[in-house]
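[step 3/7] fold_predict: job queued, chain A
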Amino acid sequence: MRVPRVSWAVLCVLLALVPTGCLLQPIAPQALFSRLHPRDPQRHVVTFVALGDMGDGSSAQTQVAHAMASVCARDGCDFVLGLGDNIYPHGVHAVDDPQFQAKFEQPYARLQDLDFWMILGNHDWKHLVPGAQAEVDYTLHSARWRLPHAHYEIPFLPSWLHIYGVDTSLLEAAVDLGQLHAAQAALCDKPGWRFVFGHYPTHAHWLVRRALEHLIRQCHIHVYFAGHDHHQAHLDWGWYQEIIQGAGGAELAPIRVGAPQQRFGRATHGFAWVRVTEARLVIRFYDVQQTVLYTWES
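[step 4/7] structure written:
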């Protein structure tokens, strides 16, 4: 859900006053890698779940989590993409904030053996750098939460799959645009599938759209996964697909219909399940009853 304009304007000014390199301190790779659940980078199939806007501790979040656990147990899941707004409504104060337990560890207790690759949303920046840094640092305090930096590449994937997470709040504030260069280095000219995930959809703000579409064009990105809008949607832009999954637990919002690029849209709590091989991609949208709402294949 969008931060009120006045609050976000203040945030933009404060972020702009901070040197880019001093925004967030990343987790060292060796510290991160030692905590990851083992995955075989040579495997021929990768499956994962994508959802965002989930961390409010509501019954809806728990219902989505239970449906995820059932689908993953039946069809397989290697990891989870968290699409931002991880802790509602104002992020966290510190790494020992009890909200991590109430709004992450407890709802996803059935998903013990999965790494949750998280990205920051606008609500996660409500306490500015200290709150965002606490979410990064929590990576070293959780068996599942993985947020090694504001932007990063998911490691240990097969050579034909490349996934990069970007911080769209910083793109909107025109801060840390160096993340786009890092994403290009990780994605451009790489073989196989190339995915990007972030919080804001491309239509959220003109700066976000310009930055993301430049990255998508430069690196021939196949799919962009986003949250923020509290519903489920698939937008087919012709040269890339946009999967919006902002229905992970927060209060739902109406969905606009009629856009020519919209292939599916529904204001229903749920998530996307993704199966990808070197030659094929399948994306299914689920609700809390584990009903398949929509399927797209490539």
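[step 5/7] annotate
The helical segments are 5-16, 29-33, 59-75, 99-105, 128-137, 168-172, 178-187, 206-219.
The chain has eight helices and 14 strands.
exit 0
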